[in-house]
Amino acid sequence: MPEPTGVIHDIGYQRYTGPRLGRRHVFGALYLHGLRTAFGLGRSAKAKIFPWLVVGVVAVAAAGITAVRTQIGEVVMTYAQFADRMSWMVIFFVAVVAPELVSRDLLSGVLPLYFSRPLPREDYALAKLLALVTALWLLLGGPQLVMFLGAAFTTDDGIRGVWNELLDLLPGLLYAGLWAVVFASIGLLISSLTGKRAFAAGGIVAVFLMTTPIVGILSIMPSQTVNELAFLASPSTLVGATGAWALGDLLVFEGSSGPPIGGFGPLYAVATVALVAVAVLLLLLRYRKVATR
Amino acid sequence: MPRWLRVPTLSDVTLIATESLTKTYGGGVTALADLTVAVEPGIIGLVGANGAGKSTLIKILLGLLEPSSGQVRVLGLDPTTDPAAVRARVGYMPEHDALPPDLSAAELVTHLGRISGLPPTVARERASEALRHVGLHEERHRAVGGYSTGMKQRVKLAQALVHDPDLLLLDEPTNGLDPAGRDAMLALIHRIGTEFGISVLVCSHLLGEVERICDTLVAIDGGRLLRADHIAAMTSATDVLAVEVSEGTDLLAARLAALELPVSRDGRMLLVPLADDDTYDLILGAVAELDLPLHRLDQRRHRVAELFAPREPSHA
Predict the structure, then answer these.
(1) Is the Cβ–Cβ distance between A16 and B122 less than 8 Å?
(2) Does the beta-carbon distance from B111 to A292 stay under 8 Å?
(3) B118–A22: do the CB atoms touch at under 8 Å?
(4) Among A103, A230, A267, B313, which residue has the fewest nearby CB atoms (within 10 Å)?
(5) How far apart are CA B139 and CA B123, in angstroms?
(6) Which parts of the chain span the membrane according to its record (chain A) (predicted)?
């Protein structure tokens, strides 16, 4: 007997008795969702434009450097220098993506839907932060990998050449990670303060760019100590100075002496760590209060 | 006081139990004052005017707010010490807009299912099931921003349902809906409470709405419990006849009392319990005898609203 066609069987409501995953998995789900959101994946075409525009610019830059390296054999810039040179792109990316990750949730009022689930508030903030850090690190690290592959396949020194190249790459990836952590924590903190994405983006650009003139002013003050500490005043120069101290000639261009920080290198490193710590702490405090209405 | 209210509060056989629950906000505003109530599984209506403390109570039940003092148990668990365990078994539909406009309903509900701890494939399946149960089919793949208010309310309900909770907390689920939409939403809630076997706490400032679907009603006002009872107990009183005369109401009342009818006043109306068909005749006879202009005489159910009239200042 043929099966009747076109009949919809309403099997009614089914209770769920399967496993319910724990905190780690929930964190992971939110993290992956955030990472996808950062690149506009699973979102409208409009949400993809800006992230991929930045990715495109960075990728083209990396491709150009790789091409020069493989064709002429000249090292235009090291991996760490690449991360440094792309800082503008990082700022632009943070200004677009950080509000997308947190401001949007504030505006749409979706937070009560999260916080009424077994998701601790701090997990929400940390998962978003980790997603942004990862996105930024991929933004810089991906092109670095392209540069590495280009150099490794065209090296004349065989496996030793590849090894040396890898030893150059790893500090570059670490440095990219430093950029990612600092910019993500500050960018996300600013974005978490407003539901208006445009305000958040403006705030991020302001904090990162408007602080550089302060560095300029401080570095021409008539005190060498003030000059040497001037780079503390802006996140970008802070990261640059910390990198210059930690990585030395991997970051500083030949013939230039790098940022004149004197003997304050360790202080810069501590300041970077402290800046991230304070930003993360404020972010967590912010999410203890938000959406309790 | 009915038997079920006397079960030891805070025991785990009750769905929700509070004991002397008090919440005072920073500025000295008291949202809940010494609220003691215990309810059994079923559909519970939580009614009260705006600002009566309904949302505050829901947030305490979810562990989103700390009570200032008192005890609370949800499904036998303490949301103040183990909020994650409570939230894993509870679904919450907030009153306000809560949907990101650019995600589709299917994506959003799937994502929130995962945040509730469902494995990825299960989350996807249960999201489409939940959306189907609330009546969203093909449109679930469109962005929520283009939905009507009714559809958005359904998505909010579906996300509360996706992880198969044992209790749903619905804050003003009919807000912003037209009459047809309200009826559909109430029917849906009733179906969830009966067919799905999920207990539901429905918050509303409209008593007339929730009394249609609830087993139990809890009325609060100014953070205090007005009354909590089975709806059957509240409406079990016999039907009443409402009599209204354009003039001479007092005369008629006295006359009916003389006929040994237990008459009571309600504004311009007289209420007389309907014992049998003779009651009609007695009333009509009295009106004719006094030659009063009869404005109306109709039979009606005991309205729950009357039961909540503030006749007992401190009922607890």
Answers:
(1) yes
(2) no
(3) no
(4) B313
(5) 18
(6) 49-68, 88-115, 127-153, 173-191, 198-221, 267-285
Task: Read off the pLDDT of residues A145-197 as tens digits, 9 standing for 90 and up.
Answer: 988 988 888 877 778 888 888 888 898 899 999 999 999 999 999 999 999 99
Which of B60, B102, B114, B144 has the highest number of chain A CBs within 10 A, making it the mutation to test binding with A? B114
Is residue A12 included in any domain, yes or no? no
Sequence-distant (6+) residues with CB within 8 A of A115 are A121, A124, A291, B64
Is residue A11 domain-resident?
no
Domain that holds residue B273: 237-299
Tell me the Cα Rg of chain B: 23
Examine the domain organization and report whether B229 and B259 are in the same domain.
Answer: no
User: Can you tell me the distance from the alpha carbon of B61 to that of B79, in angstroms, rounded to the nearest whole number?
Assistant: 6
Give domain status of residue A1, yes or no: no
Q: How many domains does chain B have?
A: 2
Distance of CA B117 to the CA centre of its chain: 29
Set of chain B residues whose Cβ sits within 8 Å of the Cβ of A99: none
Q: How far apart are CA A193 and CA A200, in angstroms?
A: 8
Examine the domain organization and report whether B230 and B250 are in the same domain: no
The domain boundary, picked from B192, B210, B234, lies at: B234
- Count of domains for chain A: 1
**A167 CB-contact burial (10 Å; exposed 0-12 / middle 13-18 / buried 19+):** exposed
Mean pLDDT, chain B, integer: 85
What residues have CB less than 8 Å from A233, skipping those under 6 apart?
A: A211, A214, A215, A218
B84 class by beta-carbon count within 10 Å (0-12 exposed, 13-18 middle, 19+ buried) = middle
Cα–Cα separations (whole angstroms), residue A239 to A56, A85, A233, A236: 24, 12, 11, 5
CATH number at residue B138: 3.40.50.300
Residue of B nearest to A47 (CA): B102
Mutual angle of helices A197-209 and A158-191, in 10-degree steps? 120
What interface predicted TM-score (ipTM) does this complex get? 0.86
Tokens representing residue A169 in the block = 């790459």
- Answer yes or no: do B228 and B242 share one domain: no
